[in-house]
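writing this on my phone so excuse typos. first protein, seq and then structure
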Amino acid sequence: MAPELTNFESDSSARQQYSAHNPIEQYVLLAKGTKGAACIELIKQVLEAPGVHVFGELLAMPNIEELKNGANANYYNTLNLFAYGTYRQYLENQAELIPLTPAMQKKLQHLTVVSLAIKSKCIPYNELLDELDIKNVRVLEDLIIEAIYADVIHGKLDQKNKQLEVDYAIGRDIRKGDIKEIASTLQEWSDSCETILLCLETQINRANTEKQKRIKHKEAIEQEISNLKKTIKTQSVESDEAMATDGCRDMAGGLDLRKKPTKSKSLKGCGPGKSVSK
């Protein structure tokens, strides 16, 4: 059960919201006023507390660091292990650590799965069985399902291929000595992003240039087609006019323009041998 808070700003809604999203905060506040045995009890509670999976803030407290070199160094070492270590490391260094309760053991095993998930998104059952010191696959699967329900990881069990496929895992505490390596990795990632961005910009510019060329080519073809249509239309009109002219000529050439012959008038009473003088 979580300890009751003393000297805590319960009337501050901002503080309450922050604590809700950062469960370790209430233990950090409690650690400010604790010494000796109270610190030991606080460490026990935080190691068992559900939802608490990061411990760096607590480790940085001066009164917690005081335990590092004293008779209760094993409590500090255990807290340090929960922040950065794995269950396999616990098994290998039990003499320097405190015995784990079932709740502590399960939490450390969940954190071990998180550490493995950070290195690989597909974790073989054999590796999990070894790191978690579990002999039975059914027990292993139950533990993984509990971790998923605890929102420590998201993923699915591939029973056919005997592996855990991880989609998401919470973040763990980071050692100060790892910051440079992380910064270097982030810088490499940033440089890669810049290179990809420049490549994409080049491709975009090239694509835009090709697009403009195609648009101009299309416009030129459309203009040429329009000109051809106008030319064909003009030629068609001229051809029709020429045919009409030729037709008129043909019709004019076929007309009978000869005059009809006039009939001569015959005079009555004119017999043979008589002549008519004009």
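second protein below, same order as before
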Amino acid sequence: MEVEDLDMLNEYIDKTNFKRTCLYLTSSARYLPEPNDMKVLDLAYSIYLKFEEYPNALRIALFMDKLQYAKKVFTSCNDVHQKKQFCYIIARHGIAFVLDIEMAGNEDGREMLQDILYNSKLSEGYLALARDLEVMEAKSPMDIYKV
């Protein structure tokens, strides 16, 4: 950053140091002036994509407010569970995001992910989580502490 040649940084990043490098880049981007901060975040985004750290890449894409980057994260990732998590993250941000079949994989998967994006089944998810954690009915202090 001091010599303003961040492009050569890609040559020296490997799987052992990319997390620290990206953490440094994203942390220092807050203190940089306007055009440079986006360049640094863009570099961190590309590094995260290169090493398949898709949740962090999506986080940076949403911070930069670039939906085309978020779409690239969806097309790059093949894991359905991660795509569900991405949809929950995007829905929490309140962004209108429409998936196509290329991003979702198939039509059934697209409908399921789109339901998550629209928060249409959010209460059902909370109820399923409550059932799994066995917290549906109120418990007395004696049940919790089990003296």
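The mean pLDDT is 87. thats all i got for now
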